[in-house]
């Protein structure tokens, strides 16, 4: 085999995104690799190494055992077997495996934590029945009462 020829079965470009379907955009940050910056247009992010980012939006996040994510991320579903240190918003399901650690602030609709999984920080559940703007409705109720009270004589 010529020296420059690719080996059969080998990836053409090391570290290139692995496609799991014809339209699926997946970014895999492999073990021993560190990435800093923003990620755009990834449907699925798999962190086996280290990722540092101010904000990432994707459909799915998977942090494997030994993987570390630092920063902010908003996803539909997330599975955590490694470590997330930062802010995580999960509009669907968050699964924290027995080796998973979440440090920081998390908002999620559904949560599953295996025995041994850890959450250190603030947890907020997203509920379907919650009013969209509770502060505005409370303020509207308070304003007429204040107006009525000021027009009455003591």
Provide structural commentary:
The protein is mainly beta and 154 residues long. It has one domain. It is built from one helix and ten strands. Strands 1, 2, 3, 4, 5, 6, 7, 8, 9 and 10 form a ten-stranded parallel sheet that branches. Residues 1-20 and 131-152 have low confidence and may be disordered.
Question: What characterizes the major β-sheet?
Answer: 10 strands, parallel
Radius of gyration: 23 Å
Given as residue ranges, the uncertain stretches (5+ residues, pLDDT < 50) are: 1-20, 131-152
What is the straight-line distance between the termini? 99 Å
On the 0-100 scale, what is the average pLDDT?
Answer: 78
Q: Using DSSP, what is the number of strands?
A: 10
Helix residue percentage: 10-25%
Helix/strand order, N-terminal first: EEEEEEEEEEH
In what range is the share of β-strand residues? Answer: over 45%
Number of domains: 1
**Net shape:** globular
| SSE-based structural type | mainly beta
How large is the count of helical segments?
Answer: 1
Region (Disordered): 1-22, 127-154
Biased composition (Low complexity): 1-18, 129-154
Family: Belongs to the bactofilin family.
Protein name: Polymer-forming cytoskeletal protein
Keywords summarizing the entry:
mainly beta; Polymer-forming cytoskeletal protein; BacA/B; single chain; 154 residues; disordered C terminus; 12% helix
């Amino acid at each position: 085999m010529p020296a420059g020829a690719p080996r059969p079965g080998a990836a053409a470009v090391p570290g290139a995104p692995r496609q799991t379907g014809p339209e699926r955009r997946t970014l895999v940050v492999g073990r021993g690799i560190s990435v800093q910056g923003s990620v755009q247009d990834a449907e699925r992010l798999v962190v086996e190494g280290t990722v540092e980012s101010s904000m990432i939006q994707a459909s799915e996040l998977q942090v494997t055992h030994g993987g570390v994510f630092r920063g902010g991320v908003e996803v539909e579903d997330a599975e955590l077997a490694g470590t997330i240190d930062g802010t995580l918003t999960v509009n669907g399901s968050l699964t924290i495996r027995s080796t998973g650690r979440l440090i920081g602030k998390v908002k999620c609709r559904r949560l599953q934590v295996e025995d041994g999984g850890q959450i250190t920080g603030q947890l907020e559940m997203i509920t379907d029945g919650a009013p969209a703007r509770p502060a505005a409705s409370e303020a509207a109720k308070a304003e007429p009462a204040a107006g009525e009270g000021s027009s009455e004589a003591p």
